[in-house]
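seq:
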Amino acid sequence: MKTVIQRVTSASVTIHGTLRSEIGPGFLILLGIGHEDGQEDIDYLVKKIAGLRVFDDEDGVMNRSILEASGDILVVSQFTLMASTKKGNRPSYVHAAPHEIAISLYEKFCRDLSEAIGKPVETGEFGADMQVALVNDGPVTICMDSKNR
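struct:
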């Protein structure tokens, strides 16, 4: 699994002109799922994300986690994170998990992350054409790959 985690002051997902989800300060997480991913990848990323210390403490130092900052999380599925650009100019998505596998892992990731932070995680809609808006705070953007520990 690959993630792009952005610390935001706000983020939202709109589908076909209708607002699906929105959050205040917290994380917008783009999640790519590969065909070799499973529960071990979910466990690793959930633990890392819940403990990631990128929110300012009282001294203005990035020393607090999403839990300590009481931040919100919005997770958006993004199979294009699994793109291979080794050959030519057209990305290959052969490493992305097929829909029937990816959707269950996406939903499990969101449930486990919600449990880890003790509140609901907002989502996009798996497989939909989404418009994602965000205000990156910092900017702080962290990429994680569960296969690169």
